[in-house]
From TrEMBL:
A Pfam family reported for this protein in Swiss-Prot or TrEMBL: Amidohydro_1
SUPFAM superfamilies on file: Composite domain of metallo-dependent hydrolases, Metallo-dependent hydrolases
Molecular function GO labels: hydrolase activity, acting on carbon-nitrogen (but not peptide) bonds
InterPro entries recorded: Amidohydro-rel, Metal-dep_hydrolase_composite, Metal_Hydrolase, Metallo-dep_Hydrolase
Source organism of the structure: Propionispora hippei DSM 15287
Protein name, UniProt field: Imidazolonepropionase
Domain Amidohydrolase-related: 51-373
Annotated signal peptide: none
Amino acid sequence: MLAILGGTVYTVSGDIVPNACLLIDQGKFLAVGSRLAIPHDALCLNATNKVIIPGLIDCHTHLGIAEEAVGTAHIDKNEVNQPVCPHLRALDGINPEDRGLEDAYTSGTTTIIVTPGSENVIGGQSIAIKTYGKVIDHMIMRQPAGMKMAFGENPIQMYMKKDRAPSTRMTIAAMIRENLIAALNYEKDLAKGKVGRDLKMEALLMLLHGEIPLRAHAHAADDIMTAIRIADEFGLKLTIEHATSAHKIAEELARRSIAATVGPSITARVKVELKDRTYRTPAILHQAGVKIALITDHPFLPVSSLRLEAALAIREGLPEAVALRAITLSAAEIIGVSDRVGSIEPGKDADLVILDGPPFAVSTKVEHVFINGIEVSNNN
């Protein structure tokens, strides 16, 4: 058993506990409080004057499938020869030795979504993993964690130069509808014994049956509305990824209880879809009643920048408590793993970060990181 003593614990799901005792046993949080009895056999870690928060969660990265410093040898996030790939699994492309994963856990990010890229109309299946480990199969939290589809510029730019569809936004929407209808027809034919297994159709049926959400890459407001329209037509669970211009249609998202994973905001307006980028988007969405998470889209913004993304959103009006939820508990809820991570509560995985100052101060350093109750980083 481990007892972490004296820190200020931000439970996220409940109160901030000053001068706390945090007990961890068998990889889980056992108890947190100001007046706990410490078992005589517990190992003790002094966290006096420190801040303790849950492990951070990044809902949208390409860690492990868009590796750093390896050239093209391990850039596996897009299959660029066919625009419809629902059967592809990010799981099969992740290298746990990617340096970016070390950057993640040493900076306090302990859970992530790894998603295929956005150059295909249907890119494949995302996965939720812990960021520390040697074998990816032992790091899995949810597989699959969603179906990636991309609306807007990226698929058009990729396939126009190949002289193939899609070349318009209308075509993107039509291709998605065609494949969803094909999956429904496949299901009927399979029940009648007319067809054999089809991995593409099986993957789309998970989406159609509500087992996984549609994770829609969409920056511009009109592209977000197209994703919403298709989700409404087919009864799909939907999360908007990036959501750069979502503040323009915040009420539409709120009315349908559609979550948005916002970011990366620390970027130039390098394409038309980013022309309305503003650090105020998270605050506007929150004020409208939209559940939000903040993302880095690593490697487009380093995964270690997640707290900085939150700090900039706070500067532009997002309440600090909401910002912390946006990179912990709200993110876990959007991913579908909040029963295990996202807050410091008895029974949850003991993923936590010990800081030497306020969570969103630029000068604050990460001193200790624990995943499943094991210390994976010590920068003290």
